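Protocol step 4 of 5: obtain the predicted structure for the target chain.
Materials: sequence only (see below). No template structures provided, no constraints applied. The aim of this step is simply to have a reference model before the mutagenesis design in step 5. Sequence pasted as it appears in the construct record:
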Amino acid sequence: MSEAMIPHSRPTIDTEDIKAVARILESGRLVQGEQVHAFEEEMSACIGAGDAAAVSSGTAALHLVLVSLGIDEGDEVIIPGYVCVALLHAIHHVRATPVIADIEEDTFNISPRDARKRLTKRTKAIIVPHMFGLPAELSEIISLGVPVIEDCAQSIGSRYQGACAGAMGALSVFSFYATKMIATGEGGMVLSGRPDLIEKIRDLRDYDEKKDDRVRYNYKMTDLQAALGRSQLGKLQRFIQRRREIAGQYDRCLPDVGIQIPVKPPGRDHVNYRYVILLDHSDDFMARMRTVGVDCRRPVFKPLHEYLGLPGYAVTSRIQERAVSIPIYPSLTDQDMRSIIDGIRASCAGSSTSV
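Step 4 output (structure tokens):
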């Protein structure tokens, strides 16, 4: 990638963020402490989901929610196939069996109808990622009568029927990886309206000074991370507004060149973590975009059914072949946005790309 290349994603860090972290460095109190506790309280207030426990990553959050629910060998956990491999890893951590469901073609989220077909007596939870910043159809999934874990790694600030994503499931998990909606570098959090589950997770994330030798994990967040997270959380609405401005420009300009743009179903507020377009010859399109200085990516590296060698999953396979994520993040400049749109027009001109 050349120096002039517009990256697919990058964090949005300003002087306020730098000062927040510098204050913790100057204090000499770097590990889990007051900043972590304050970050937990502020996230809980933001989402409206009871109590919170900060951890070292989104994957750690997924692992601990499964442990807190008592999920173990022989149990089944339903997950969509069109998602990052972290969900699969978390289920394997507890020796449970992942059950892959297909997705909705228009939203890229788990299909409630397909999830219902996968239910068995051994189903102990459904993990529901809100893909690319758009909430999944939660009401239908919750009606299945299985504990729902909301995966809000890409959807902080989005809403479903008026409620914040993360406020409706038995538990919800968040990721603060460097290029997520808000960033702490690495880091994650679990929220739940059930204090007993959060208490279990707080016990499990720290192994030291315990009265028994139960297996626990070094999954703590540091005050350095939490200070950055608090600073970023204070700018969340500004970040979302900028993402929506960019998405609006794409919405207006891209249909003219024959590109299928993301849907926005009523009753669901999209925060535009990713802007995913659908087109034929997607590999050729990404290669052409790199020649004009824009890095575009597959929004999911590899569907989970492919990792597991499972047949079927027609919708997931079809989306994987056609989906491309183009740059969208708060620090993207107006000039960058114009360059991306011009690059897409040039890449599509005279090509066989279609929807």
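Step 4 remarks: The chain has two domains: 15-101+108-233, 236-348. The mean pLDDT is 95.
Proceed to step 5.
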